[in-house]
Amino acid sequence: MPTRTVEAGELTATEILDALDDGQRLVVRVEMLGGIHEVTLRHDGTTYYCDTPTTLHKHESVDEMRTCIENMGYGRDE
What InterPro entries does the annotation carry (predicted)? Predict the structure, then answer.
């Protein structure tokens, strides 16, 4: 599946998780560190990944990933 680019807040956390679970890779454009940066979100079937400009975060469950999406402002409120 192709990579989809979205703006932070364009999708809800549920929509992001659904896309990841369907095998999509999402690039989220987010304002951080004084500029616009791209964060890549993906799921390999077991682990969720958030590849930010500074680090790679791994999440073992959908609940952990949802918390990350909500805390980092990648998705809009449900």
Answer: DUF8001 (IPR058314)
